[in-house]
Design a protein that fits this description.
By secondary structure, the protein is an alpha+beta fold. 37% of the residues lie in helices and 26% in strands. The strands form seven sheets. An eight-stranded mixed beta sheet has the order 10-15-16-23-20-19-17-18. Strand 17, helix 13 and strand 18 form a beta-alpha-beta unit. Helix 4 packs antiparallel against helix 5 and helix 7 packs across helix 15. It is globular. The protein binds one RNA strand through strand 6, strand 7, helix 7, strand 16 and strand 20.
Amino acid sequence: MCDHTENDEFAGEYAPRELSPVETLRHSFAHLLASAVADLYPGTKFGTGPHVEHGFYYDMQIPVPVSIDDLPKIEEKMREIAKGNHKFERFMLEREDALKWAAEAGQGFKAEIIEGIPHGKISFYKHAGFTDMCAGPHVNYSSKLKHFKLTAISGAYWRANDQNPQMTRIYGVAFEQKEELEGHLKMLEEAAKRDHRKLGKELELFQITQEYGGGLVLWMPNGAFIRKTIEDFWRDEHLRRGYNFLFTPHVAPATLWDRSGHNQNYRDSMYSPMEVEGQMYQLKPMNCPFHIGVFNHRQRSYRELPLRYAELGTVYRFERSGALHGLMRVRGFTQDDAHIFCTRETLEAEIAGCLDIAQTMYQTFGFPDYKVELSVRDAKNSKNFLGSDEIWELAESTLAKVLESRNIPYTRVEGEAAFYGPKIDVKVIDAIGRVWQLTTVQLDFNLPERFDLGYIGADNAEHRPIMVHRALLGSLERFFGILIEHYAGDFPVWLAPVQAKVLPLSEKFLDYGRDVVQSLRNAGLRAELDVSDEKLGYKVRRAEMEKVPYALVVGGREAETRTVGVRKRKDGDLGSMSIEAFAERLADEAKNKVR
RNA sequence: GCCGACAUAGCUCAGCCGGUAGAGCAGCGCUUUCGUAAAGCGCAGGUCGUCGGUUCAAGUCCGACUGUCGGCUCCA
C-alpha cells in the first residue's frame, strides 16, 4: 500500500515508459525548471521531476533558501532558456559511468537512483548545457515549452519518507494550448473563491479556532441547520432501506481497543488514554466495536440477518497540526457510518443496496459524475491479507459482480485492499471538476474473528457472519466542506438555512412584511424579515451576498394586493406573485430538492 | 512534526529608510421612508499573535514560541 508510489516514481527514472504527448511536455517542463534552477543556484542537487495531473514538479536541494517570491525569477529564466530553442539530446551511459557522472556532478540523489537500478544502461538528457539523468521522453526542442506557470513551492521528503532529508519542491502547471492554461488558472481562481473556509466565515456556517482547539469544529446556526437537513434526509433514506439506528459512546475502555486491534493497528491516530477510577479509557477513532457490541447482545439467527446498523457516529483521530485543513481534515468528525452483518448468500444484495443508497446521495446533492475503484488484494502476496483464499475470491467476485450488474464502470486496483478485506471506493466530481473521495464500502474478515461473531444457520450450526463497513458521505464535516465548494455557498432551497428574505420597501411596510414571513413559516418554510433602516437596493445586495435563494420585496403595491415581488438569487426580478403562489413554488422546490 | 510564507480593529487590508497606529466594510446613533447589488453625517472600536533582545525610541530590526496558509507525510 505504501511502497506503491515510491516504486512508480523511481521506475520512471530508468525504466522504458510510455508517456502521452502532454505528459511528455510536462515532464520536459520539469527539466526546463531544473536547468533554470541549476543556472540560478549553482550547487543544486536534483531528486526527481515527474509530470503530475495538470503540470509537473521537481524536488531539489537548493543551497540557499528559496521562497515563493523567487518563482517569477525562476519562471523568467525558464522562458529565456526555452526561447533559445535548444535540442533535448538523449545519450546513454553504462552504470559505472553514470555513477562516475553523479559523483563528479555531486548529484548524490541521482547516484541513489542509479544504485537502485539493477542492470542496463542509464539514460541522460542534455539541453542548453544542462545534463540530467532521466528516462525521458522529452520534446525535441525547448521552444515547444510555452504555456506554463510556476504555482507553488514547498518542502517534500526525499522518496516520500519523513526520515529522509527534506527537499524543495517547485510545482508548475503546463498545457499544450494557451487556452487550456488560462482555463486551468481560471479554475484555480474559482476554487479560491469557493474556498469553504472563506465561505464558512462569510456565511457564518462554522468556526474552527485555536481557543476551542485546532481541528475541532463549532457548527454555527446556518451550518448546523444545513447539517440537520442533511441528517434528516440521510435518516429517511436509511429508514426506507431497513437500517436500524444506533447511538454509541465517544469513549471506551482501552481493553476494548485492544481486542478490536485498534491499539495495535491504529495507534498513531488515537489519543492518549484517560484514567477513570483506575481503568484506562480512550476516545473512539471508529464506531465498529460498538456496533459489534450491539450485534453480540444475544445469539443471532440467520432469520434476522441481514442486520444493518447505522449511526452518525462522532470519532476522534489524532492529526498532526500541519495536516489540519478547514473542514476537510479535522480531529473530531462524524461518520455517516453503518455496519451490515449478513450471510454469504445475501452479500451481493447488501453491496448492491449500499451502492444504491450511495447513488441516491450523489444524485440528491448534485454530483452526476463519479469514479469507482475496486481495491482487491495482491494475490501474489496473499499472506499479507487476512482470511482464506476462498473467502477473498468470493468477496472480490461479489463486489465486481455488483458493479457490473449495475453497469458502473470501475478501475480494479490490485493490492490496494485493506489487510482485512476488499473494498469499493467512490469519488465524486464536483462543479469545477475536482475529485473527492466520498463513499467506501469495505468487507471486514478481521473483526468478526476478533469478536467471535456468530449466528445460527438453518443447519442449526454456528456460522461466522460477513461484516460490511460503509460510509456514504464519509464524514459530515468533510462532506459539508465539499458541498460548500460544490455549490459555491449557493445552497439549493431545500438546504438553505434561510429560503426567503422579506425586504420591506420602507419601515411603513414592516407590518405587512411580518405577515408575509408568518404566512411562509406557517407553510413550513424558512423566511426572515430584513428590519434594517436601509434602502431597497442595499437590502437586495445584502440578500444576494448572504446567498438567500429568494428575496421578497414588499411595498405599497404588494401590501394592497397581498402579493410579494419575487427576486430569485442571481436571476433577478421574477415579477409579483400572491403569497400562496410563492409559498407553493418554494415548498415545491424544497420537496423536490431542486438545485 | 518537516520546508517556506504570513500574523495590524468583528471582516478585508494600508503603514516607505525604526519616531509611540490608518482606510473601507460591518456595528451603534442621528437624518432619511426610499422600488430590485452600497443614501448622508457622526460615534465607537486595536497593549499591532506571545515572549525576549537590539535601540534614546520597535507593527517596523533580530531571536524563540504559538497559530494560520501552501505543500510534504497521512487520510474521512
